[in-house]
Amino acid sequence: QQSELNSFLWTIKRDPPSYFFGTIHVPYTRVWDFIPENSKKAFQQSHIVYFELDLTDPYTISALTSCQLLPQGENLQDVLPRDIYRRLKQHLEYVKLMMPSWMTPDQRGKGLYADYLFNAIAGNWERKRPVWVMLMVNSLTEVDIKSRGVPVLDLYLAQEAERLRKQTGAVEKVEEQCHPLNGLNFSQV
């Protein structure tokens, strides 16, 4: 029953009410049908919506990309043990080879090409910090590739908020997310 699902929606009792909704970073189509109506209604009725980050802001995307890079002059090959680097390189070659067979006809129909998609996800991987390469590798699976082109739930809601002309904002800055991850030492990663 829809009404019995855990909606991850909290109501802050004030006038007008405020809501707090917990999202996850997965393609919205994987979870949308399971989001209860009370959560969708709260979103629809809200005039102002704040997100973790503003994923519709080009600066946010640029800053996220920059923060993932190793310091100037350093490459992943310099910081990873040789064997791990070699295995990573082989795995990425395998993924690049397999990606055309992982893509859906719908993705191809929308003009999405495997080489473009691989470069969008893994481009410049040799300049990224190990923690970001780990996150990238975790997203290079057949299931994840098949859902590329579908916005994650946060981005979908942000796009909907813009479409509905809601005022939007962000709770965090890129640096607040980036610096803790970049602060992990190699053994933690």
TrEMBL record:
The record's remark on the cofactor is: Divalent metal cations. Mn(2+) or Co(2+).
UniProt subcellular location: Cell membrane; Membrane
Q: What is its main location?
A: membrane
Cite the entry's keywords alphabetically.
Answer: Cell membrane, Glycoprotein, Hydrolase, Membrane, Metal-binding, Metalloprotease, Protease, Signal, Transmembrane, Transmembrane helix, Wnt signaling pathway
Q: Which Pfam families match?
A: TraB_PrgY_gumN
**Molecular function per GO:** metal ion binding; metalloendopeptidase activity
Give the CC-aspect GO terms.
Answer: plasma membrane
Q: Does the keyword Metal-binding apply?
A: yes
Q: Which cofactor does it need?
A: Co(2+); Mn(2+)
At the top of the EC hierarchy, this enzyme's class is hydrolase
The annotated topology with respect to the bilayer is: Single-pass type I membrane protein
Q: Which GO terms describe its biological process?
A: negative regulation of Wnt signaling pathway; proteolysis; Wnt signaling pathway
User: EC number(s) on record?
Assistant: 3.4.-.-
* UniProt similarity note: Belongs to the TIKI family.
Q: What does this protein do?
A: Metalloprotease that acts as a negative regulator of the Wnt signaling pathway by mediating the cleavage of the N-terminal residues of a subset of Wnt proteins. Following cleavage, Wnt proteins become oxidized and form large disulfide-bond oligomers, leading to their inactivation.
State the protein's name: Metalloprotease TIKI
